[in-house]
Amino acid sequence: MISAEDLVALVRNYNPKTNADRIIRAYEFGKQMHEGQFRHSGEPYFSHPVAVAAILTEQRLDDATIITALLHDTIEDTKASYSKIAELFGDEVAMLVDGVTKLTNLQLSSRETKQAENFRKLFMAMSKDLRVILVKLADRLHNMRTIKAMRPEKQVQKARETMDIFAPLAGRMGMQWMREELEDLAFRVLNPEGRQSIIRRFITLQRETGDVIHRITGDMRHELEKAGIEAEVFGRAKKPYSIWRKMQEKDQGFSRLSDIYGFRIITRTEEDCYRALGAIHQRWRAVPGRFKDYISQPKSNGYRSIHTTVSGRDGKRVEVQIRTRQMHDVAESGVAAHWSYRDGVRTENPFAVDPAKWIASLTEQFNSEEDHEDFLEAVKLEMYSDQVFCFTPKGDVVKLPRGATPIDFAYAIHTRIGHACVGAKVDGIRVPLWTRLKNGQSVDIITADGQTPQVTWLEIAVTGKARTAIRRALREVDRERFIKLGRELVRAGFEHVGRKATDKALETAAKQLRIKDSDELLARVGSAELTAHDVVAVVYPDLTKDEGEAIPLRRAVIGLEPGQKFERAPCCQPLPGERIVGITSRGKGVVVHAIDCDRLTEFEDQPQRWVDLHWHSGTHPAAYGATLDLTIGNDAGVLGRICTLIGEKKANISNLEFVDRKPDFYRLLLSVEVRDLQQLHSLMLMLEAESDVAAVERYRNTRDAAVAAS
Question: Which end of the chain has less Cβ packing within 10 Å, N or C?
Answer without folding.
Answer: C
